[in-house]
Every structure is written in C-alpha cells, then in structure tokens.
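Narrative summary of target 7.
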Amino acid sequence: MDDVAQDFEKLLGEMRPKLHRYCARMTGSVVDGEDIVQDALAKAFAARASFGGLDNPQAWLYRIAHNASLDFLRHRARAPLMEDEEELARLATPDVPDPEIAATCLRSFMRLPALQRSAVILKDVLGHSLGEAALITGSSEPAVKSALQRGRERLRAVASEPEELALTVIDGAASARLLAYVDGFKSGDFDTVRAMLAEDVRLELVTKLRRNGKSEVGEYFGAYATAVQWAFSPAMVEGGAAMLVFDRNVSLDTPAYFVALEFAGGQVVGIRDFLYARYAMERIEIRSIA
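Modeled conformation, tokenized:
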C-alpha cells in the first residue's frame, strides 16, 4: 500500500465518528446515521483516485456524507429539505458556536429543514466555520449563516415545548424472543442462542466484518462465550429490539454499546453489533425492558 492509500485509510478511520455525529443528527437516528456513513465511505472509496489532489479532504468527506444524507431523506420523505437561499441570506447571526445545541436530542434536529439542520450541526456540534459549512453543503456563506440563526431559534423553541415521547410497544411474542436471546447471553447458553438463528441470518460487526448464513454467524458467539467482562440487558433502541452491553470494569449503569436485533417468524434474521462503533451511543434513545 503506497503512502497516499495509507493516508486515505487513516483519514477514513479518523473521520468515521465525526461523520456519524453529523449523519445521525441529519437523520434523527444513530442506526440510520451509520447506514449513511457506510454509504458515504463506500462512495469516497470509489472516488479515492482524486484524494491526493484535494486541498481539504475532510470537507470532501463531509460533502459526500451531506449528499448521502439528503438522498436518504428524499427517499424517506421525512422532513423538508431546502429553503430559499436568497431569503436566508438576508438574515444575520453571530459567528459563535452555541454549546447547548450539542446536547439536543437527535429527534429534535428532524424538526428543522435540511439546510438549517446541517448548518447547526456543522457549526455548533462539530465546530466548523461558516465557510467550511458553506463548502460542505454547497450553499452560500450568507445563506448558511442565516440558516444557522433560524435553526438555533427553532431548536430553542422546541426545547421549551413538552417532550414528545416516542413510545414503541413491543408485543408479547416479540418481547419473549428478545428476552430469550438476551438470557442466552446472560447464562452462557449459546447453543440456545444459535438455535434461534434463521438459516439466512445476517451479521454485521460494525466497522469490522459481515457474515451471512447460520453456520458463519454461529461462530460469532465464540468471543462472547469466553468473555467475562460483559453484562447484558434487553432494551428498545430507537424503537427496535436490542441488547445493551455493559462493561463490568467500567459501569453497570451506563451501557458501553448495543446490539441491534431483527426478528422474523420467531427467528433472528439480523444482528448488528456496535462493539467497535461505540460512537453510536451518543444521544441514543434507549428504553429498557424488564
């Protein structure tokens, strides 16, 4: 691997958590945000031939992630995307980050049009300048500055409103399957866990590997079977079934990461383990299941 290729791989590794912070807030979901990051990194890899001649490769990656986020939102039609730039450019806002914005819950960002959302995330969460935000979003600097003002005002208004709790009800059968899966981890009965897998089950150990099929995925449980540092608990993460994983050496109150699970026909058809992507825990919505 030559020096340019090594620099490119290093940049992707360093930027991945930052790109996830951006994409998770653009979509209102840490799980969807990870999907977009993976899409963006794949597009960046496909275009890596231009990497060596870039003046600002970080902004280039953010721009790819920004466009991938907009594509995702258009597909989902979850929020208004654009505003009139000429109108935005007539507004003004202080060029100083607002530290309270970074603590805003992910769903609140979805109350903003995309340019406002992007401007607020880039400036107040990630610390970019207005010029960098304009470069990333492909908008004029005055428009970004004005979108930032409107976005901040809207988020402050949202913060003063009663919180809307997005409660997802899990039925008895689904709850029983989730509890049985987690109980297998708690007791070390991984034969029972493996028996729950569908023949075409999919595994993603985020940032590391993918496996398909019951025989390949079954090997994944070996590391958990020999480890003693982890504790497990069933939960709903962003409305989906999940297993919380706690590091006994750090805290039994705050999960270290989570494993998203997908069930169908009484079997496990999807496993997404965030062991190596703990950046996804930031501002995540968790509801424990007793």
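The longest helix spans residues 3-27.
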